[in-house]
Amino acid sequence: MIRVLEQTSRSLAGVFLFLAFALGSSTYALCQDSTSGNPQVPEPSKTETVLLSADALSEAAAYAPDKPIAGQLEFVGSTLMQSLATMWAEDFAKIHPEVSSKIDCQGSEESFKKFSDASATIALLSREVTPEELAQWSKDVKKKLIAIDVGYDVLSIIVHKDNPLRALAWNPKTNSPMSLSNDKSIEKWGDLGIDGPLGDKPLTHVLIVPSHGLRSVAERFLNLKDRPKAITVEKENQLDIVDAVAAMPEAIAVVSANRAMADSVRALAIGVEGQRIVSPRNIQAVNLGYPLLRNLNAVVALDDNGKLPPVVEEWARFILSRAGQETLIKDGFVPLDRSDIAVQQERLGWETLK
């Protein structure tokens, strides 16, 4: 599966480094300190988003509308996806100038409540919608709702820049890098192999407020369900989370990888399959098995005749096309591949993508 992330001036030199842990070891953390004598995970250089060529998106079909469409779209939901919604609306309007858009993104978890009588509402969520949620929302709003994937967001676990931790190992049993193979609870930094004064301090988990889709995703990747004693603090947005981690040596958080570029924090690499360390800044991170991803979803409503409103259906064709996926990449996200797109077409009741 070809995924394109962000261009980095050098990839992980750690490809040839020995991974100082195994899946059966007593700890899933990699504490690499410059004085420890252990192999270090090199700090990746700063990255810059690049505009992909058409070849990079060859798996998505070109957008070829049958005819111009008119109408109004209303986007609600994820604050993370607000700029993406704006870019999609602008690009769509260039092709269909009679389409206008209203964008009111105030958080993923409130989005379904904003489905109005006008069925051309598109709810954007920065996480995957479960079938149970979709069924309940459909019942609540008295509309048949369909959720589709529109792309992916690569996430980073970040710590203070002076934290000696360089990487964590992915535990496939818990689907988290924040668990130990001996089932011991992680409470202090010393439980992750950190020595010195920091080792005696408890981890402080900086979380976004519950109205955002990132909240449940971060709780899952930080394994907070199995760590009831974990200390948590809340922030309103991802920028505030980064600032909080930069100010607290004992802090840890999950943010979008493109929000983790500040010099004051470190994005941790993840050890996968017991044999390689993958940085979220590596251009081939997803190909190498980097596991910290979240689905980006769009939820649309069928009308009383069981069909998508024409303007919504045409928008869906656009965002699942090469043009729409290229816009997604411009905003720093990961596109769908051919099989992903086919699944979304099936959810929408399409046989082929025009």
Describe the structure.
The N terminus is likely disordered. Helix 4 links the parallel strand 9 and strand 10. The protein is α/β, with parallel strands linked by helices and 354 residues long. The protein is built from eight helices and 15 strands. It is elongated. The strands form three sheets. Strands 4, 5, 6, 7, 9, 10, 11, 12 and 15 form a nine-stranded mixed beta sheet that branches. Strands 2-8-13-14 form a four-stranded mixed beta sheet, with no helix packed on it.
Summarize the structure.
The protein has 354 residues and is α/β, with parallel strands linked by helices.
Features:
354 residues; alpha/beta; D-Maltodextrin-Binding Protein, domain 2; 2 domains; 9-stranded mixed β-sheet; 4-stranded mixed β-sheet; 8 helices
Helix/strand layout:
Layout: E1 7-8, E2 29-31, E3 47-48, E4 71-77, H1 82-95, E5 99-104, E6 121-125, H2 131-141, E7 145-160, E8 165-169, H3 196-199, E9 204-208, H4 213-221, E10 231-235, H5 238-247, E11 251-256, E12 265-267, E13 269-272, E14 276-278, E15 293-301, H6 310-319, H7 322-330, H8 338-347
Parallel strand pairs: 4-5, 4-6, 8-13, 9-10, 9-11
Antiparallel strand pairs: 1-3, 2-8, 6-15, 7-11, 7-12, 7-15, 13-14
| Largest sheet composition | 9 strands, mixed
Bin the helical content: 10-25%
CATH architecture of the largest domain: 3-Layer(aba) Sandwich
Distance between the termini: 23 Å
Number of helical elements? 8
The CATH topology annotation of the largest domain reads as: D-Maltodextrin-Binding Protein, domain 2
Return the string of H and E elements. Answer: EEEEHEEHEEHEHEHEEEEEHHH
Shape estimate: elongated
Q: Averaging pLDDT over every residue, what do you get?
A: 81
The quaternary structure here is single chain
CATH C-level class of the largest domain is: Alpha Beta
What Rg do the Cα atoms give? 21 Å
The portion of residues forming beta strands comes to 15-25%
Number of strands: 15
Low-confidence stretches: 1-29, 31-56
